[in-house]
Amino acid sequence: MKKIIFLITILTLAFMSSSAQPKKKTVAKGYDAIYPFIKGKAKVYKNGKYGYINMEGEEFIPCKYEEIYPFERGIAKVQRNGKFGYINEQGEEVIECKFDYIGPFKNGRAIVKLDGKLEIIDTEGTVITEGNHAGTQ
Q1: pLDDT value at residue 36
Q2: CB 119 within 8 Å of CB 105
């Protein structure tokens, strides 16, 4: 009985390692860096820009961002052309990359800097203050 269990274990390990290798090679191809997978997605770096791939190695967020911060509550802060915004887990920009600074969301609000002024936005990117809040340089 022990020999049968041992044989099944060896065959299972051999099958798993042989079927895992092709996926590993296709995922790594073309990227300068691949970060660890978290919840089925991995941050990737290619030609000086960041994006995301899924477990199959498909790029679902193109490598077009200067930085992508970790996802929190389904959104991630991104930087593109020196400006900040937010994307969702499908890669859609839910808040346009137009802010000089954007902070984390707390209670559905975030502090941003736009045209030298500090503002407060909601989770859709709508400015909810009047714009006379001078920012510091």
Answers
A1: 94
A2: no
